[in-house]
Amino acid sequence: MFMRVNKLQIDLPAPKTMDPNAGAALQELLGGKYGEMSTLNNYMFQSFNFRSKEKLRPFYSLVASITAEELGHVELVSNGVAMLNNGPDSDADEEDGGDISDVPFEDMKDIRLAAAFLANGGGATPSNSGGIPWNNDFVTTTGNVVVDLLHNFHLECGARLHKLRVYETLSDPTGREVCGYLLVRGSVHAHAYALALKKITGVDIEKMLPTPNIPLGRIPECQKYLDEGSHRRLYTFSPEDYTEMAGIWGNGEMALPTDPPGELEVVDGMPEGGKIHQLTGVPSAFTPDYAPEEMFEIATKLYKASR
After folding, report:
1. What is the pLDDT of residue 90?
2. Whole domain around residue 302: which residue ranges?
């Protein structure tokens, strides 16, 4: 089962401006072929379908724990998309119904992904940067451990390529922070799957990393995560389970040569996390509604009653 915590895996800086085209680019990292929906669903269904879980516990634990992290990555990218589409944090009065005759979405008619506003009110959906829905055909779960792990390694390398390309299209700190963090964590996952394959086959697949061959240290938004050692950590995302993966990620294994040195470690639980930003309502777009003051009043009474 999964436990939900009301935090993002990291703190995201608020966007400086509304940037719907940046939000559209970030959608590729959510619902594209190599996006977080793909990594999540590949690893999740592989973990559900895993044969001989107890006899192959270190490998099962690795896939299962990364599944939980990927669920948080879907949440992180989705929040980044919505923040970029929403614009800077604001204390604007949401109770004013607004004037819909003033064409509040005029600036949106020529943007890259109009459906994000016309259909989704500026929110994220499991689709790529062109608005094409994420596809179940992107999931590989063969039941063969080596084939699935090899596919996962390929998936993380492909995701790294796409993150680098999206990063190079962005200037806003929100989208770049999402990319920087995911590049570090994606590198961890690629490294982990490479080590798992090495344990089974004896092939030093980790020597192919990083692919593409750009060290994380060249990306400013990756630097603080490298400094704190995030590139050396795998989290169990559980109070007591999945510790067996330490036989793969740990046990004297070291960080990649292109990253800051140190021994790999498994950390019980999850990262400390960061706040979830409050997206300001747009009454003229009927989010959360045209005149939501009664809704706010009801919610306030319910909140007080719960204390």
Report:
1. 77
2. 20-306
